[in-house]
Amino acid sequence: MIERAKHEMNLVFNALSFFSRIPVPKNVRYSGQSLSQCVAYFPLVGWIVGLVSAGLIVLLMPILGAPLAILLSMAASCWLTGAFHEDGFADCCDGFGGGYTPEQMLRIMKDSRLGTYGVLGLCSILAIKFSALLSLSQALVSTDLLLVLWLAHSLSRFSAVLIIWKLDYVREPSEPSKAKAVAQSIGSKELLFALFWVAVPAALLELNMLAFAVLSCLLVTLLWARYLKLKLAGYTGDTLGAQQQLSEVAIYISLLAAINTGLIL
Question: So which residues are the signal peptide here (predicted)?
């Protein structure tokens, strides 16, 4: 039992080390197997990032005002994750915008230089996220806003786990890649365990808001998975980052639209 608990804690630290900049103990054991298994804790990383982001907005809004509080929250989120997902989204914009064949798209995504499509895509999604959060901060009480961000960060990361579960990894085995270690296929057991971390913030959110958040996230996941299957016949690490960003923003937009149209009172 104790050994099992130690093993799970090691997986937690693997997930924190891989998916964020959060410090972990020096005696953490890293291996290909542990990095693959730690995917189930990906939404837990979203727990931490979401709580920090939401907490900063709620705490700083009365002091600095909503716009600056949200910008600082977004900056903190990027710092905590090393802008891991934003970088993946920008690379996808470059790859899908500038490539015509799967090989070209993958080669462009691998290029560390940021192109026009990447800059435009990154600026656009950050601006959309800021605008949506600003509007939500005016439409929701602080408690609901905190829960929405907590859920959005964990649910959007769970959606990336769904992509891993559903699609094949398309990089060559010999090709160096950060995501290759976590790109092993996962089973239903790991998927359900990852879902547990979403269930906790979901249980605290009002049912009508939860429904819109889940439906919008699932819709984006299905559309993105279909697009990846069509264009690449699978996924890469960059496309997982893009999935997280797209689904997070979709959750904010769907909730805002539902509030403004009276579907959520």
Answer: none
Q: Which residues pair with 235 in a beta bridge?
A: 169
Give the tens place of pLDDT for each residue, 34-76: 777 888 899 999 999 999 999 999 999 999 999 999 999 999 9
Q: Would you give the end-to-end CA distance of the chain in angstroms?
A: 47
Q: What tokens appear for 120 in the block? A: 């435009």
What contacts 24+ positions apart, CB below 8 Å, involve 62-70? 66/134, 66/137, 66/138, 67/134, 69/137, 70/130, 70/133, 70/134, 70/137
Instruction: Give a yes or no: residue 107 inside a domain.
Output: yes
CA-atom Rg of the chain in angstroms: 18
Q: What are the residues facing 169 on neighbouring strands?
A: 235
Domain enclosing residue 154, as ranges:
42-260
Q: Are 209 and 265 in contact (CB under 8 A)?
A: no
Instruction: Give the predicted TM-score (pTM) of the model.
Output: 0.94
Please choose, from the candidates 196, 190, 199, the residue with its C-alpha nearest in 3D space to the C-alpha of residue 165. Answer: 190
